[in-house]
Write a structure and sequence with these properties.
single chain, about 260 residues, alpha/beta, 6-stranded mixed β-sheet, 5-stranded mixed β-sheet, 9 helices, about 25% strand
């Protein structure tokens, strides 16, 4: 497949342009390649030396990640930026990035994947950001205990052995759940206003403990990395259906 065609199709399906003024990430193709032909695509959460080297070793033509290299632009190509870019350019490895567009996608997004894991029904957009929504809200098909939900997350998420933290202050059993993956603590008040029983995100902030306790809402902290593997994995399946060879490079951080 031509790289230009792949980029165009993914930008359209992810609505990349709609997030241009909302996202610090420079979404879309961040690093081009000389050869426009793409047959092998490596997927990972983060564009880091570790994952880039793994993609090169596998023989990838393109890397697709959630967290790329350019946030509000790159002013200097030194240090980490140089190390990462140099390896991409040496290997003629392209880099495609989808941050908030991938969080927000109703079917292939990170929140959508986590909602699938929990088998949420009656889903609706959640996590308002500038006219877009980067999360989802829904109901468990059968109300479940906090322990049962925790066990599902603990067993399924790639948390690097660090486990899933629980702020157990909400009602039993849990039925109504809101999700914003990654660093989603800023949307906790929206979850309270929505009247949910539980809020699932990646990482918390210091004040979240007392906010959850005083609001009587249970919070599950699955880890930033662990809650954001769903989107890139889903995109890999899409590209496999396009006839491309794919691999997922797992590099859990435990954070």
């Amino acid at each position: 497949m031509d790289l230009s065609d792949l980029v165009s199709r993914k930008d359209e399906s992810l609505r990349t342009e709609d997030f241009a003024d909302l996202d610090a990430s420079e979404n879309g193709l961040q690093v081009d390649r000389h050869d426009d032909s793409v047959t092998r695509v490596a997927f990972s959460v983060d564009a880091a030396v570790e994952t880039i080297e793994s993609a090169v070793d596998w023989g990838a033509d393109l890397m697709v990640v959630h967290h790329g290299l350019s946030w509000d632009g790159i002013e200097r190509v030194t240090g980490r930026h140089h190390a990462r870019l140099a390896r991409l350019l040496e290997a003629d490895l392209g880099l495609y990035v989808s941050h908030l567009p991938l969080d927000a996608h109703p079917d292939h997004g990170n929140a959508a994947g986590l909602a699938d894991l929990l088998s949420l029904s009656g889903r609706e957009p959640f996590g308002a950001l500038g006219g877009e929504s980067i999360g989802q809200r829904g109901r468990l098909s059968t109300p479940r205990s906090t322990e049962a939900v925790h066990r599902t997350l603990e067993e399924a998420l790639d948390h690097g052995g660090e486990g899933v933290q629980v702020l157990d202050f909400g009602p039993e059993p849990i039925e109504d759940v809101a999700i914003v993956t990654g660093s989603g603590a800023d949307w906790f008040d929206e979850a309270v206003d929505a009247g949910v029983d539980a809020f699932v995100t990646g990482e918390g902030k210091g004040q979240l403990y007392h906010q959850a306790r005083e609001s009587a809402v249970t919070v599950f902290l699955g880890g930033h990395y662990a809650t954001e593997t769903f989107g890139v994995r889903a995109l890999a399946t899409v590209l496999e259906n396009w006839g491309l060879e794919t691999t997922f490079i797992d590099a859990p951080t435990g954070l």
